[in-house]
Amino acid sequence: MRIDMDFVKSLVYRTRDIINDKSLIRSVSQKGFADFVTSVDTGVQDMLERELSAVYPDIQLLGEEGERHRIDPSGDIWILDPIDGTTNLIYDYRMSAVSLALYSGGAIEAGIVYNPFTEEMFTAQKGCGAYLNGVRIHASSAGSVSEGLISIGTSPYEKERADRNFEVFKNIFKTSLDIRRSGSAALDLCYTAAARTDGYMEQNLKPWDFAAGMLILTEAGGTVTDYDGGEINPLKNSDVLASNGHIHRELLNFWK
Hints:
This protein has helices at about 5-20, 20-25, 40-55, 85-90, 160-175, 185-195, 205-220, 250-255; strands at about 30, 35-40, 60-65, 75-85, 95-105, 105-115, 120-125, 130, 135, 150, 180, 200-205, 225, 240-245. The protein is α+β, with helices and mostly antiparallel strands. It folds into 2 domains: about 5-135, Fructose-1,6-Bisphosphatase, Chain A, domain 1 (2-Layer Sandwich), CATH 3.30.540.10; about 145-255, 3-Layer(aba) Sandwich (D-Maltodextrin-Binding Protein, domain 2), CATH 3.40.190. The strands form 3 sheets. A 7-stranded mixed β-sheet has the order 3-4-5-6-7-8-9, sandwiched between helices. The chain has a 5-stranded mixed β-sheet with strand order 11-10-12-14-13, with helices on both faces. A two-stranded antiparallel ribbon has the order 1-2. It starts with a helix and ends with a helix.
């Protein structure tokens, strides 16, 4: 499926005005424990769905906020997280992003992750490399976890995972240079793509959390698998382990 990437990027840039509307941020409801939605989330999704469907009426939208049971996996699909890092948004933590991917022909073909607070847009098209604000980026060259800065996700909606997660995180912390926790899976994947970190891991992510960032990282030379080292289906929930590629096997071994 061919798209006008510049046009889609311009639409994503326009979400900045919605995201910066403080009145919409204050309109908060709770979907589950530690799982929030604001009027920013719904406003961004509504705008992008309306504008994208006007130009690409045959592409479905799989969004975090809305019905998902009508999606035909054999067709072309936008995969959208209108705000990845909603809790960060509510707390003005400024680590939140719009994440938009295009799924076509059984694979992610394009990805955009935009943080309006830093004015950084990470982009990729399959086979064309990864970019930050139009400048080519590459994953790091760290050759071992001991040389690496590793980002973690704590699966905050599933506290029952905490004992096992933090046991592994402690071992990684003791082996690596240090660990980080941003609260945005999309940005964590992009930071690994831009060599700001060397790896990232989190359990049970949703497609809209990782679809765009997964393509951006792989196009930057990195590797993304599940916790068993297997290929990820971008339309299903998955454990996600990402790296610069060089330390991937070593990171997987922490979970054995």
